[in-house]
Amino acid sequence: MRIVCDCEKVRRNAAAVVALCAPYGIAVVGVTKCVCGEPEVGRAMLAGGCTMLADARLDDIRRLRAGGIEAPVMLLRLPALSEVDEVVVLVEWSLVSEVETARALAVAAARQGLLHRVLLMVETGDRREGVMPADAVAVARELDGLPGLELAGLATTLNCLCGVLPTPRHQQEFVETVEMVEAALGRRLEIVSGGHTGNLHLIKAGQVPARFDQVRVGEAILTGTDFSTWADLGVPHQDVFKVYAEVIEVKEKPSAPDGAVGRDAFMRVREWPDRGVRRRAILALGEIDLDTASLRPSRPGLEVVGSSSDHLVLDVTDARPPVRLGEELEFDTLYPAVSTGWSSTLTTKVVLPMRDAGASG
């Protein structure tokens, strides 16, 4: 199977997100973790107006740098203590929540004659990374003024671990934490990084605090969607990525299994309604390749029945035209299919270049 990325559509989507945020003075950071730091995708995001790139893994960032990306890059995942020497060389920005890690970054940067900029992560409800708001002032004081380190601002994230949806209340409470930190430090922070794709519907509605000046966006640029809310963001292309897989069997079979049903190969227990004998196709694509639940068949009349490690089963009874053995079927993708498929060593990746705009690095 192969997964194909159209970088011209990435550029256009990035430009749409940038235009959405521009009236509020919000800069867009293009997130490349979904495509493992694919340099051409990063270039397309920058060409669309993103001010910098961000990724969660150093391997991905090495790939961006090796591919000629010279633009500023932010490390999204909290740095590990074992990584600090490389972090300060590879990226200009980090998100931090541990004072010990920040001190280690400061020492590493100072040792190499660098100034490393950090955003202090604040927990605002999703219960993943970040200091609690009540602790933000004390932690900020610890970070402020460390040689080799600049506390440039605060950041937060929702809708990642627990699925908490951003609301105007969450945003305003975060801004109140920012203002408490600023009062304690006696200076205005440069960056207030208020969230990610999940915040864009609030920005589109004008429900954004004036202090927000940055968002970190991957999904809306790469797939044109926010699958947490399915809000219409006005992003033009939901078909940036296509997945293709070959048909390896086509047969008529009973739709209901014969025997007691337990857990499948991925610990799932599912119900199988009896729809009678149906025409089914099996594709050379499975859960090991990517998240099959995030695939949408392009051809009318196709229905995903289920998947195992190496096989995707479709009901093709109503397919028009009929499905044939040996042909490739095309699928649109949601974000989870892209992120798992691009990181898989078993998939062939194809990158189509930008067409209407010059490259940017």
Please provide a written account of the structure:
The protein is an alpha/beta fold and 361 residues long. The chain is built from 10 helices and 16 strands. It has helices at residues 7-21, 39-47, 58-66, 84-90, 99-111, 136-143, 168-185, 200-204, 219-223, 335-343; strands spanning 2-6, 27-31, 52-55, 73-75, 93-96, 116-121, 149-155, 191-193, 214-217, 241-254, 277-283, 295-297, 303-307, 312-315, 328-333, 348-352. The strands form 2 sheets. Strands 1, 10, 11, 12, 13, 14, 15 and 16 form an 8-stranded mixed sheet that branches. An 8-stranded parallel sheet has the order 8-7-6-5-4-3-2-9. The longest helix is centred in the middle third of the chain and has 18 residues, at 168-185. It starts with a strand and ends in a 9-residue tail after the last strand.
Descriptive labels:
alpha/beta; 2 domains; 8-stranded mixed sheet; 27% helix; Lyase, Ornithine Decarboxylase, Chain A, domain 1; single chain; TIM Barrel
Summarize the structure.
With 361 residues, the chain is of the alpha/beta class.
Largest sheet: 8 strands, mixed
* Overall SS class: alpha/beta
CATH class of the largest domain: Alpha Beta
Beta-strand level of the residues, as a percent range?
15-25%
Helix content: 25-40%
User: How many strands in all?
Assistant: 16
Mean pLDDT over the full residue set? 96
Named at the architecture level, the CATH assignment of the largest domain is: Alpha-Beta Barrel
